[in-house]
Amino acid sequence: MARKKIAVVGGGQIGGIVALLAAQKELGDVVLVDIPEKEHFTKAKALDIMELRPNDGIDVELTGSGDYAALAGADVIIVTAGVPRKPGMTRDDLLSVNLTIIKGVAEGVRQHAPDAFVVLTTNPLDAMVYAFHKVSGLPKQRVAGMAGALDGARFRTFIAMETGLSVKDVSCLVMGGHGPTMVPLTRTATVGGVPLDALLSQEQIEAVVQRTRDAGTELVKLYKIGSAYFSTASASVEMAEAFLKDKKRVISAAALCEGEYGVDGLFLGVPVVIGAGGVERVLEFPLMEAEQVMLDQTIAAVKETVASTEL
User: Fold this and answer.
1) Is residue 80 located within the same domain as residue 188?
2) What gap in Å lies between CA 107 and CA 102, rounded to an integer?
3) Residue 29 φ then ψ, to 5°
4) Do residues 112 and 73 both lie within one domain?
5) C-beta separation of 135 from 187 below 8 A
6) 99, 127, 145: which is the final residue of a domain?
7) What is the DSSP letter of 38?
8) Which residues are catalytic?
9) Which of 2, 10, 139, 310 would bridge with 81, disulfide CB 3.0–4.6 Å?
């Protein structure tokens, strides 16, 4: 049985870690793709990871390329290409430069791998996923943005840190745009089935929610020369694995909404089922009035960013 093929577009920090994690999980053979001027980086990282396989006992192949033709036959494509945030920059500040990059990637995917399932990490995420979908022409089931997959992991992390309990037992949901207007739904948060408000005060919960919203910015300030990459890579690989192994995982991802939650024609972080069919369905449930108000705010912010793409 032939191994699956995972293509990673963008050979930077996130792309290199995606390749490493996908290899360590033995999800399939990996090809790192970047622009011709950076092909040497993709080849170097692929060879570097190839040389750790004996120590990890993994049997997959990794290659590097500077040509989108290398995407051919990919089952999954994880797009990490783009300029990272620096201190003082918002995700939206990146829009113009990253929009040009994503348009090029979308055309490459459309030409060489139109049957792939595509996960995007590039910021501003909601607008970049929208642009990729428009330019690539791929069906909505096969395009998703790593929104709540990362935001939810951060929410879980901070809940575990605040409670002092195992992150393994934390469950929660984050919806909305991948930015400061995101909606961490505290009502859904539990630790081992115990509601969060039985473990933390309202003040503690509000602090955790705010830290989740500011998590990306917190890391940008600490790194000073870039943004998150370990957690971003892990979240995108989680989505790819759900597709490759038909796991039917419920993951909050930036998916195209066509009426769900009152959203039509936008990619927004909502709980979806990811399996062999890609984004197989959006899970919709009634929101409380305060939650709907917050979601309406994030919808307005996403609409404004998407309008800037002029697509």
Assistant:
1) no
2) 9
3) -75, 150
4) yes
5) no
6) 145
7) G
8) 178
9) 10
